[in-house]
Design goal:
40% of the residues lie in helices and 10% in strands. It is built from two helices and two strands, in the order ααββ. A two-stranded antiparallel sheet has the order 1-2. The protein has helices at residues 22-47, 51-62; strands at residues 84-88, 91-95. Strand 1 (84-88) and strand 2 form a beta hairpin. The longest helix is centred in the middle third of the chain and has 26 residues, at 22-47. It is flat. By secondary structure, the chain is α+β, with helices and mostly antiparallel strands. The chain has one domain (22-95).
């Protein structure tokens, strides 16, 4: 491509939309190999851990599959009433 020319040359449309780049394919293959070879050892190590260490490692790994839920705090000033309605099986139950 000539210096200063941007984009593709005429007739070269580049990689098809939705196709993976070589780098993406290599990264996915590396991740697959890492999991296949590392998982048996990780499970073996976790089997020998004390309960507290096991839970620490387990929850750390679990975050990659089930992200932590964010905490939500409700703050208000003055006197306000908050009404929460629980709806189960089509019936309403109001709790204040």
């Amino acid at each position: 491509m000539a210096k200063g020319v941007k984009g593709f040359q005429k007739g070269n449309e580049g990689r098809p939309v939705g196709s993976k780049s070589t780098r993406t394919i290599e990264w996915e293959n590396f991740g697959k190999e890492l999991l296949e070879k590392g998982m048996p050892r990780a499970l073996e190590i976790m089997d020998t851990c004390e309960d507290d260490k096991f839970m620490n490692h387990f929850t750390g790994l679990l975050e990659y599959f089930k992200p932590k839920l964010a905490r939500t705090e409700l703050k208000h000033e003055g006197e306000q009433t908050l009404t929460v309605k629980f709806i189960e099986d089509g019936t309403e139950d109001s709790k204040s």
